[in-house]
Design brief:
With 334 residues, the chain is an alpha/beta fold. It has two domains: 178 residues, 4-Layer Sandwich (Metallo-beta-lactamase, Chain A); 127 residues, Rossmann fold, CATH 3.40.50. Helices cover 22% and strands 25% of the residues. The chain has seven helices and 19 strands. The strands form three sheets. A seven-stranded mixed sheet has the order 7-8-9-10-11-18-19, covered by helices on one side. A six-stranded mixed sheet has the order 1-2-3-4-5-6. Helix 2 crosses helix 3. The longest helix is centred in the middle third of the chain and has 13 residues. Bound molecules: zinc ion (2 copies). The site of one zinc ion has 6 residues, from loops.
Length: 334
């Protein structure tokens, strides 16, 4: 029997809404009360009256959008009551502070996963399996072809290319929130102990991660350095900088990009990427299906992404499923 959440939880095209609490999860527009899963811009927008989120997410929002006076910090596992709904946040393993939202009322439990992954990531708390009746999941990589390789192997490949390329530097394009810090941590785990050089657009969030105890080693700004000084070095920049004037200051860069979409060759070509690195902060097909088997909800709601295959898969595994087709969820990161 599917649990009855009618009356206290609604899936609107604009997002998940709790009418009894007048609260939206990850609203795209300013609202009176928001519960925010994580700091990416397709989930976190500034200017809400009240913002319930982890302390890390609130810090990220403040860094990106300025002070958010309505912030109410909820640590992982801490319980709150919002308008008659029991609310707690649990690690999603996506980026620093990222959370699944557990909601409970009238004996029914709903978990809104937000973006998540199951692969190891030393820069954030690992995904926690939270039992529930209804599991609301993303499906960015919801096709069986999307099985991401081991990220450490991708980084090892990049370092090998740099070592075999005298006179060049390694320029890695990575989204400023989450991906950049994970790539740096992976480089450190892969034995890269030299300073890592940063484009100005990734400096602030790297500093925020370090202030939250994530060890990223010696990071230095590219600004002010001459090309000679960067020969043989690793440089990190946002994807938008790979093709622009900024990168011309670098010594013959090996242009790499870290993204789950790099397994699609056309996407790598489009961006002029010489060395695609398949590193995803979203669950691949294997992680999505493993998660559903572990959470074992009675019902699965798919927010966005490649929902058809996942909905079909749920049917084969005795889980009721529906696609919500939420709007405005084109991921900032991937
Ligand atoms: Zn995200
Ligand atoms: Zn997202």
């Amino acid at each position: 029997m599917a649990p009855d959440v009618h009356g206290w939880l609604k899936a609107e095209p604009r997002g998940i809404y709790l009418p009894v609490a007048d609260a939206w999860i990850d609203p795209q527009h300013p609202v009176a009360r928001a519960i925010v899963t994580h700091g990416h811009s397709d989930h976190a927008r500034g200017g809400h009256g009240e913002i319930w989120a982890t302390p890390e997410t609130l810090a990220i929002m403040a860094a990106r959008y300025g002070p958010q006076p309505g912030g109410v910090a909820l640590a992982y596992g801490e319980k709150a009551g919002i308008g008659g709904v029991g609310v707690s946040l649990h690690p999603a393993g996506h980026v620093l502070g990222s959370a699944q939202v557990r909601l409970e009322r009238d004996g029914a439990v709903v978990v809104v996963s937000g973006d998540y992954k199951r692969a190891a990531d030393p820069t954030c708390a690992p995904f926690e399996v939270v039992p529930c009746d209804i599991f609301i999941t993303e499906a960015t990589f919801g096709l069986p072809v999307f099985v991401h390789p081991c990220a450490a192997d991708e980084i090892a490949r990049a370092l090998a290319r740099l070592r075999a390329s005298p006179g060049r530097c390694l320029l890695i394009g990575a989204y400023a929130l989450g991906k950049a810090q994970r790539v740096i941590a992976l480089l450190r785990e892969g034995g890269w102990e030299r300073p890592i050089y940063l484009h100005g657009a990734v400096e602030k969030l790297c500093a925020l991660y370090q202030a939250h105890g994530v060890d990223l080693g010696d990071l230095r700004p590219v600004a002010g350095l001459k090309a000679d000084a960067l020969v043989g070095e690793v440089v990190l920049a946002p994807p938008s900088a790979l093709q622009d004037r900024w990168s011309r200051r670098l010594p013959d860069p090996i242009t790499a990009m870290a993204s789950g979409w790099m397994m699609v060759r056309a996407r790598a070509r489009q961006r002029g990427v010489e060395l695609p690195l398949v590193i995803s902060d979203h669950a691949g097909w294997d992680e999505l299906t493993r998660t559903l088997l572990e959470v074992r909800p009675k019902e699965v709601w798919v927010t966005h992404g490649r929902d058809d295959a996942l909905v079909h898969w749920c049917g084969l595994h005795q889980m009721k499923a529906r696609a919500l087709h939420l709007v405005g969820r084109e991921d900032e990161d991937d």
